[in-house]
Amino acid sequence: MSLAWISKxxxxxxxxxxxxxxxxxxxxxxxxxxxxxxTVALLEAAAKDFSKQNPDVAVTVRAVPFGDLLTxxxxxxxxxxxxxxxxxxxxxxxxxxxxKLVAPAPDAVxxxxxxAWPAGVVSAASVGGTLYGIPNEIDVYALNxxxxxxxxxxxxxxxxxxxxxxxAAAKLTDKDKGQQGFGMINxxxxxxxxxxxxxxxxxxxxLVKDGKPALDxxxxxxxxxxxxxxxxxxxxxxxxxxxxANTTGPFLDNFVSxxxxxxxxxxxxxxALKTGMGDKFANIATAPIPVGPSGDKxxxxxxxxxxxxxxxxxxAEQKAAWQFLAWLNSPKSGKNxxxxxSDILMSMGILPSRTSDIEAHKDKLGSEFLSGYxxxxxxxxxxxxxxxxxEFSESLxxxxxxxxxxxVSAKDAQANAQADATSILxxxxx
Amino acid sequence: MSASTxxxxxxxxxGRKALLATAMLLVAVASAFxxxxxxxxxxxxxxxxxxxxxxxxPRTPTLEAYEKVAGVINVGRSMWxxxxxxxxxxxxxxxxxxxxxxxxxxxxxxxxxxxFSVLIATMFLPPxxxxxxxxxMVGSLGLSASLAGIIVPxxxxxxxxxxxxxxxxxxxxxxxxxxxxxxxxxxxxxxxIVAPSVAPAIAALALFAFVYHWNSYLWPLTxxxxxxxxxPIVISLxxxxxxxxxxxxxxxxxxxxxxxxxxxxxLFVFLQRFFVDSIVGSAIKG
Amino acid sequence: MAKAFRASAGIMLAPAVTLIGxxxxxxxxxxxxxxxxxxxxxxxxxxxSFVGFxxxxxxFGPTSVGRDFKTALLNTAIYTALSVAxxxxxSVVFGLLVYQREVAGGTALRTVLFSTYMVPMIAVALVWSxxxxxxxxxxxxxxxxxxxxxxxxxxxxxxxxxxxxLLNVWQQVGYFTVLAIAGLTQIPGSLYExxxxxxxxxxxxxxxxxxxxxxxxxxxxxxIAIINAVQVFEPVAxxxxxxxxxxxxVLTYHVRRVGIERAQGGLGSAMAVMLxxxxxxxxxxxxxxxxxxxxE
Lengths: 430, 286, 296
Known about the structure:
Chain B: It is a multi-pass membrane protein. Chain A is α/β, with parallel strands linked by helices. Chain A is 46% helix and 16% strand. The two termini of chain C are 40 Å apart. Chains in contact: A-B, A-C, B-C. Chain A binds chain C through residues 67, 70-71, 74-75, 77-78, 95, 99, 101, 186-188, 238-240, 242, 244-245, 250, 253-254, 257, 390-391, 395, 397-398, 401-402, 404-405, 407, 419-420, 423-424, and chain C through 40-44, 63-65, 67-68, 129, 133-136, 152, 154-157, 237-246, 260-263.
């Protein structure tokens, strides 16, 4: 019996509850991630469980710092000995797919994913209708605020509109105490661009529309102007919100130590806040993004992570990789109907994306901090996944930082951002 | 200067001396301070590392951070990798530099000065200039993600050749010619006659190469592509920083940094005479 | 001796010449060749297609590619100039402190100064990022003691690059101090004695004897300091990621990001070639400056 035939049969038989089918030879696959060693240990434990049922497949985990992940993945291009599986950020998928570095998901996996995950997440894991990865982590942005500072400033409720937002930011600002109203992150692409994009979509705008940059819209103009207002009024002090390569630094320190009233951040920093604040973490609450004058209701920006398979890996390795991934993300691998992957993610305070996983982790996701994020998921807009997306994001970061530090006006920032985005996306599409 | 300071010293000795001593102390303190801070921080409790205003001396020094480092990265393995990278590269550099240095110092052959100039020019080439194609070349040689990929491209360098030529040129020709008359081969002469005469320079080059390759970051980072089994300590150290996304772990990072700094620093303290002599030698003779 | 040893010369030179040829000269030529090509770093060299000066037009053009490169080139130039401008005078001052024989402890000072040169840059970067921390760092605390308000250090586009220069100076100055000492030992004591007899004071002796006779040493130091400075990578990669507002985006970091992370091998190579050309211009200018003075 041929190997291919066995695995096809196995996949057809439900993908996940695989019997210990006898492989013709043992297969070694590797899994590349940026997770911390503690989380890697959880993944290794899951891989061991898998190998118990599939003694001929051995999974090793390789880990790199986040900043090196894309380079590492890209550099597999010429070699087949690169990692078999990679955990990637959805923004990177179009380039990786274009360079044929990642393999399309087998039909059985694709149909399972399409039925078990929300459509928005599935689309972020697909290019031109072809599914390339199994989505796992989803991150979404919301307003975090410090209840104690709100109380001290006499603000009753989190701001719902930009007017309320600006008002709250002004009231929360106290230069003598070194306190700023709204923390506007810089020096880290996603930390700069995602909060801006969340405000933009809550004002009825878009970063990219129909594959073309849409930063020249009046809605975008209002968002740039909002940033300029916050900076000029002193309610945001960029020097208090710098990030380092570890996505920590002053922006985190100042929020943790009660020097920043509000910030727009993703759910995953829960563990950082808890470590940094201890008991004071109870002061932190989550609210939807304030709605702009041209917006209808709060929207957030979401982005997702997925696991992909190296297209240059051998046939047997690729089959084993998909088999492992399907198992890892299925309700059979974790506790109480959750997937092993979602258990790992929840250990970091990260939202899983599979519908059955959200159900299985209902209790934990109902916490005061996380529920605020779960509630905005429904109206979240995925960050545009386009060719050149990473470079686009980095160039928008530069423009926004120039605006934050008062080097350009809102008008010029808007014009620069649109022009840069246009040239980057055009070049990438070539 | 010494003469002038001596004469001035006679005029107003105490004030000048106090000033000098103060200046020297200040410079030494400023120079030692960051490393002292590193070691002190590695002994603090996590709460102390985050305190505002900062705590200077840990109240209850603890080795907790070091234990935690050992749980996060494989310290032994990383140190071993660094040792392999640094010592194999150093051995290669010594052999290639002595051979080429000997040829440039003691042979005359057509194109000698041209070849020497071309090689020396590479000393001034920043590694980033060759990084992109080199990265691709090493990949197509099948050396990426391996220690060999880090080591092989660095087995010879212009600085070593330059240093060896400078010192070997000082070895008397008579000594070499006498050995040739006895029928010794050139390699044997290099090993038995030349090498012992320039032993201090060899020691210096060895130490320079060892420390440089122990510390080097850009090239291993680019070659290794996340193969954590082959990480040298400096790359494992950068991994401590991203140990937990968004979490502050100053003590951990400082403990890791202390571990990475120790081997080159210890080597230096014991062997600094060679370092200094060779810098002096290469600068003057250059 | 000439003819008999030609074969030996070949054998002696082969290992070093082959290695340097293959792993330094060949990739350098490839970089130059690639700078005229459109090439993705993920593909074999054979996939490259010739675009003439297209890459150079783009990196000096008005788009974000051009702006980022020009910023990186300028940042590298500022970083290098500041580093050299701080390191050279300090190395002479520290060298004099070590070399003087009035107060004991010169050798100990040399050891302390030089030891920082042994510290991996990665550790330097990590430690200094904590020293610079606006609230939990000791530097702002110390400044507070002498009545200076807290500085933003790495958090402001105005001070971030300078902050990185400072940590570079801290790490490197010991090495250059030893170079300066080497130069000082070469100055004959008799010159000072004669000057003292002529009634020259310490300042005049420094200006008319020490400094001129240190010129060759300082030239050597300047060249090494420049070469070292353009290689700055770790503090940027680890702490600032080139920010804020691109103020610490230096060439080594930027070329790696463009050429390897974004796989735009042609653009990255063109940037590397520009760096090489700038270096050649700088170093030859330095040499001709010193040589002209020598001729005077």
